[in-house]
Amino acid sequence: MEPRRVLLVEDDTRLAAHTAEYLQDHDFRVEIAADGELGLARALSGEHDVVLLDLMLPRLDGLAVCKALRQRSAVPVLMLSARSEEIDRILGLELGADDYLAKPFSPRELVARIRAVLRRGLSAGAGNPAGNQPGIRRCGPLLIDRERHRVSVEGETCELTAYQFDLLWLLAGAPDQVLAREQIHQRLRALRGEPAGEFDPAVDRSIDVHLSKVRAALTAAHPAGAGLIRTLRGVGYMLVAADTKGQEP
């Protein structure tokens, strides 16, 4: 199997070199970018399977890189930072990072986290060349093209409003993972470039209504769209990447 391609965005040259050497010894092919602007440009090239993104970077910090990257690419992102405060982890995850690892970290744990992120990406189709195209997310029969604002189920077009599109895009970024309504609310605000806001019952109901319409639109587009969005009562919502036959609608 061809080595997995890793983009390491890290301005600490010594740490970057040691990390790259360890990853290369474990069958990864590593490219290093020493600042945020270069890291973003390289991450958008579609040439990598996963991005390791430091939080504190010159020219463009890791949070800004992650936000800009998520608007155009589904490549898995593992954020690395010496800042281990909860707010930093939350911001990173809300902006679209797939995982967060605090420095100093064990190289063995880093490898394990990378492999876990890659496995999740494969389940959503992000591990193949088509899935790594900027702004493309695949989940079973579902294809979402953010750049063209198109959604299709088994090739059949599904019409959604801009808000509904963003909801579906957000769920497709975490396939087979349950997202609580408050998580959806906060991540959606980050995705749309809005400041974090307090969660309230009115928003809770709005999310329910819009996701109900998304579910109906997916089902109307093609029978394979039925059951893609699963409701876990009292918990939240999940976009199911695997076979949904027999699951709760």
The level-1 CATH class of the largest domain: Alpha Beta
At the fold tier of CATH, the topology name of the largest domain is Rossmann fold
Global mean pLDDT: 82
Let me know the CATH homologous superfamily of the largest domain. Response regulator
Estimated structural class: alpha/beta
The total of beta strands comes to 11
Arrangement of strands in the largest sheet? 2-1-3-4-5
Query: What's the Cα radius of gyration?
Result: 18 Å
Main sheet specs = 5 strands, parallel
Provide a count of the helices.
8
Number of domains: 2
- First-residue to last-residue Cα separation: 38 Å
H/E topology pattern: EHEHEHEHEHEEEEHHHEE
How much of the sequence lies in strands comes to: 15-25%
What does this structure look like?
The chain has helices spanning 13-25, 36-43, 62-70, 86-94, 107-123, 162-172, 181-191, 201-221, and strands at residues 4-9, 28-33, 50-54, 77-81, 99-102, 136-139, 142-145, 150-153, 156-158, 229-232, 236-239. It is an alpha/beta fold and 249 residues long. The chain folds into two domains: 4-123, 3-Layer(aba) Sandwich (Rossmann fold); 136-239, Arc Repressor Mutant, subunit A, CATH 1.10.10.10. Helix 2 packs parallel to helix 3, helix 6 (162-172) packs across helix 7 and helix 6 crosses helix 8 (201-221). The termini are far apart.
